Amino acid sequence: MNAAPSTAWKAAHWIALLLLCAAYLQGGIDKALDFPGAIAEMAHFGLAPPAVFAVLVIALELGASLAILSGVLRWAGALALAVFTLGATFLAVRFWELPLAQRLPAANTFFEHLGLAGGFLLVAWHDWRGRRAAR
């Protein structure tokens, strides 16, 4: 029996990675196309200087996503997006500070983002482990 992954499996794997990165690709592209809006978003969250943070976030979202999708330093891109997602989630989705009526939807968003971070950690771990085993 051949243990090599099939073409269909490789395609499904890449599509799964694309789905995992979709929000970051969309976010990075939107921020790049509406840079004043990206600056306003950074300022809204108290990140200063906002233009520098906007450039860094765009570069991170797009660069890490491309690393994951291309397989070049996939583990590093996935780890970067996991750390970014955790930091951004704790900064932007502080559900525990919201009035009760807004708390549940914000808590759902918060925990969905934790799930994304967990997914990226799994991608990083599997890629790193696979590269070590290939040595």
Structural write-up:
- The chain is globular.
- 20% of the residues are buried.
- It is built from five helices and no strands.
- The protein has helices at residues 7-33, 35-44, 50-70, 74-92, 100-134.
- By secondary structure, the protein is mainly α.
- It starts with 6 loop residues before the first helix and ends with a helix.
- It has one domain (19-134).
Helix and strand topology:
Layout: H1 7-33, H2 35-44, H3 50-70, H4 74-92, H5 100-134
Helix pairs in contact: 1-2, 1-3, 2-3, 3-4, 4-5
Determine the structural class based on helices, strands and strand pairing: mainly alpha
Quote the average pLDDT: 96
- The sequence of SSEs as H and E is HHHHH
Helicity level: over 70%
Task: Count helical runs.
Answer: 5
* Count of strand segments: 0
Instruction: Measure the end-to-end span.
Output: 23 Å
Spans of 5+ residues with little confidence (pLDDT < 50)?
Answer: none
**What characteristic shape results from the CA principal axes?**
globular
Largest beta-sheet characterization? none
The amount of beta strand, in percent, is under 5%
* Oligomer classification: single chain
Supply the number of structural domains.
1
Over the alpha carbons, how many angstroms does the gyration radius reach? 17 Å
